[in-house]
Design a protein that fits this description.
Blueprint lengths: L1 E6 L4 H12 L4 E7 L4 H11 L3 E4 L2 H10 L6 E4 H10 L5 E4 L7 H9 L3 E4 L3 H17 L3 E3 L2 H10 L7 E8 L17 H5 L8 H9 L1 H13 L7 E5 L5 E7 L4 E5 L5 H9 L30 H12 L3 H17 L6 H12 L9 H19 L5
Parallel strand pairs: 1-2, 1-5, 2-3, 3-4, 5-6, 6-7, 8-9
Antiparallel strand pairs: 8-10, 10-11
The structure holds nicotinamide-adenine-dinucleotide and magnesium ion.
């Protein structure tokens, strides 16, 4: 029996994770859940999965949740200490890190420090603190399983092979809703247009990141750390059908790929049950219905954010954390209708231009760089998002 803490249980990944748990009660139980503002959904999850512990954002939410619940109540905590308590609960054997954004870093790091295996959806943990996190994973001897579909595909394509035989990793990208959109009209797109992802149903922030391709940039950085692969050996191919989830090319010219219908339940389940597999309810792939799989190189003029991520990796040290912070601020501003879509990448670039990269020797230092990037991003935008 795997005993789970799910950080971010009310989000897109959290909900899909609990669907897998519900389908395999003999394999999984839930020790702790954490959520942001969706107390109604958290209440339903508590009633269905009976966690010992839950954590919410604020003391006020903790009180409200206590009032909503009837019957046996879990311990209810709040704030960062609540997230850490959930991530490190003594009964937990695996933590599913599914909070969105850099807010996921501290509880994920706490889980690793407490010796928990981690199923990692929160890519921002590796984007902001990859070197430190991978060192911690090694030191603690824990397992870090990718949930991100591309990284799960790479991980699956590496099984049974030697890492020294890898020539390069090829991450696929759908290209999002603006792949063929007239460039001169990008400044006029609405939030609704940007949230209309052609293939994947996901949380709002990652959906905007997919439209700008910053998501692929974050994934290049994630892959750099997860697979210890230099950036020049990580390629990105646009593959609009989202059927091949990523590939590994070996020195002999052979390429291993993982295919499937785009549904996050497959990579989530693999992270939970590795090296085994369980039924997920994901629709089988019917190759005969696919009219053709296409691949081409990304247009960096259309998607400047992708290049910014390679630049951040090249600058190294604190730059990826600053880039990520500026992206979070800019995406939030876009979602609130305060800036245009192209202003997202422009803000990130200006924030990076203003930053002098410095070394990061602790999670505290990463949080400091994150705060710096947020403040600079807000200052450049000239808006107050508080
Ligand atoms: P989401 O917005 O749907 O859910 C986020 C969860 O985190 C919610 O439970 C929310 O309440 C909680 N949360 C948000 N801000 C928080 C904060 N400051 N403190 C504590 N909790 C907070 O996001 P999602 O789409 O499920 O994505 C989660 C993570 O997984 C992201 O890092 C994303 O990049 C990654 N990911 C998601 C998908 C997907 O299909 N959704 C695919 C690959 C990777
Ligand atoms: Mg992905």
């Amino acid at each position: 029996m795997k005993k789970l803490t799910i950080l971010g249980s009310t989000g897109s990944i959290g909900v899909s994770t609990l669907e897998i748990v519900a389908a395999h009660r003999d394999k999984f139980s839930v020790v702790a859940l954490t959520a942001g503002n969706n107390l109604e959904l958290l209440k339903q999850q508590i009633e269905e999965f009976s966690p010992q512990l839950v954590a919410v954002l604020t003391e006020d939410s903790a009180k409200k949740l206590g009032q909503l619940l009837t019957g046996k109540k879990p311990e209810i905590l709040f704030g960062v200490p609540g997230l850490i308590a959930a991530a490190t609960a003594s009964d937990t054997s695996m933590v599913v890190a599914a909070i969105v954004g850099a807010a996921g870093l501290v509880p994920t790091a706490a889980a690793i420090k407490a010796g928990k295996d981690v199923a990692l959806a929160n890519k921002e943990t590796l984007v902001t603190a990859g070197r430190l996190i991978m060192a911690l994973v090694k030191e603690m001897g824990v397992k870090l399983y990718p949930v991100d579909s591309e990284h799960s595909a790479v991980f699956q394509s590496l099984q049974g092979h030697r890492s020294e035989d890898v020539r390069r990793i090829i991450l696929t990208a759908s290209g999002g809703p603006f792949l063929n959109f007239p460039l001169e009209r990008l400044a006029q797109v609405s939030v609704k247009d940007a949230l209309a992802h052609p293939n994947w149903s996901m949380g709002q922030k990652i959906t905007i990141d997919s439209a700008s391709m910053m998501n692929k940039g974050l994934e290049v950085i994630e892959a750099r750390w997860l697979f210890d692969m230099p950036a020049e050996r990580i390629s990105v191919n646009i593959h609009p059908q989202s059927i091949i989830h990523s590939m590994v090319e070996y020195v002999d010219g052979c390429v291993m790929a993982q295919l499937g219908v785009p549904d996050m339940k497959a990579p989530i389940a693999y992270a939970l049950t590795y090296p085994g597999r369980v039924p997920t309810g994901v629709k089988p792939l019917d190759l005969t219905t696919l009219s053709g799989l296409t691949f081409f190189n990304p247009d960096h003029g259309r998607f400047p954010a992708l290049k910014l991520a390679y630049r951040a990796l090249d600058d190294g040290e604190s730059m990826p954390a600053v880039m990520n912070a500026a992206n979070e601020v800019a995406v939030e501003a876009f979602l609130r209708g305060k800036i245009s879509f192209p202003a997202i990448a422009a803000t990130i670039e200006k924030t990076m231009d203003a930053h002098q990269p410095h070394s990061l020797d602790s999670i505290e230092a990463v949080l400091h760089a994150d705060r710096w990037g947020r403040e600079k991003g807000r200052e450049l935008l000239g808006i107050n998002l508080a």
